[in-house]
Amino acid sequence: MRKRFLVFIFVVCVVAVAGVLSYRGYKVWRHARLMRQTKEFLAKSDGRNALLCLQLALRSDPYDLEACRMMADFAELGRSPSALLWRQRVVDLEPDSITNRLLWARTALALGDVGSAQKALDTLDEPGRKTAAYHKTAGAVAVAASQLAEAARHFQEAVRLEPENASTRINLAVLQLQARDPVVAAGARAALESLRTEALRQLTVDAVRRNEPASALSLVNELLRETNSVFADRLLHLDVLRQAKSPASPAALAALQKDAATDPARTFDVARWMLATGAPRTPLPGFSRCRPACRPINPCR
Question: How far apart are CA 290 and CA 299, in angstroms?
Fold first, then answer.
């Protein structure tokens, strides 16, 4: 009798362990599926369903580093203060990453929270503060705090560490244009002239910021004629067309989607641009749009 009882207990334990392992396996499978669906919806510029799937993924595993990082990106695109909480969560999950702390600072800066940006920079250790990325971010924070001398010091160090980085050299030159020393200001103008392509980008962004669509369109067209223009310049072109309410916007976006269809990184960039600007969703080449009748109520099941 005792032997039968022990056998019964053993069988019950085996079944219980198998059940627990099966449940855990199901949770892992479902989480991976939700993350895959998030990326698929994002590739289709379907931000609503991508966010829904991502939220469900985080409920199943709130400590998934990739999911937390993606949620921080989503929140920042929506200019939500919760983006800072997600950036801090990412830092907590991967505390040794310099990049995570710099993203925390940059997100705070994008949200206009200079204090939080400085707080994030203060958490970096000594090796982290010796990188060009740190000095570029610290320079941007100093500019936001109207500490132009401090900003120039950071950008000078960033240029020393990355002498080939045109963007950093332009940031420094823009600051030096405001110098009282005419020699320094003249040198800054010469530097900007030598960095014509990047200067055109900055001038275009400046024209957009000042709400001068005609000037921005002229500059961005000149930029696209430069032999060393890049794919991001075409996204900037879309920004300008959108601000100018140009009828050429849909055709330009369609051409960009077609060119990006075979490159996952470019596809993602176009999708992010569409989400950030609220552009009407259109399927990227290679994806078919499902009819409303065949769309499930909850696409993330």
Answer: 12
The residue type of 286 is G
Give the C-alpha separation, 141 to 113, whole Å.
10
Tell me which residue of 135, 146, 66 sits closest to 105, measured CA to CA. Answer: 135
CA dist 83 and 300 (Å) reads 23
pLDDT tens-place values along the chain, 301 residues long? 655 545 545 454 545 545 544 556 667 788 889 889 988 888 888 888 888 999 999 998 999 999 999 999 989 988 899 999 999 999 999 999 999 999 999 999 999 999 999 999 999 999 999 999 999 999 999 999 999 889 999 999 999 999 888 888 888 888 888 777 888 888 888 777 777 888 888 889 888 888 888 999 999 898 888 877 788 888 889 889 988 888 888 888 888 888 888 888 888 888 888 888 776 655 544 444 444 434 444 555 5
Domain ranges of the chain: 39-124, 140-194, 196-277
Could you tell me if 45 and 275 are in contact, meaning their C-beta atoms sit under 8 angstroms apart? yes
Distance between CA atoms of residues 196 and 184, nearest Å:
19
* Closest of 50, 88, 48, 59 to residue 72, by C-alpha: 88
The CATH T-level fold of domain 39-124 is 1.25.40
Count the helices and strands in the chain (H runs, E runs): 15, 0
Which residues does 235 contact at the CB level (< 8 Å), separation at least 6?
256, 269, 270, 273
Phi, psi of 159 (to 5 degrees): -65, -40
Topology of domain 140-194 in CATH is: 1.25.40
- Using N-to-C axis directions, what is the helix angle for 249-260 and 264-277, rounded to 10°? 150
Separation between Cα atoms, residue 152 and residue 90, nearest integer Å: 30
On the question of a common fold for 39-124 and 140-194, the answer reads yes
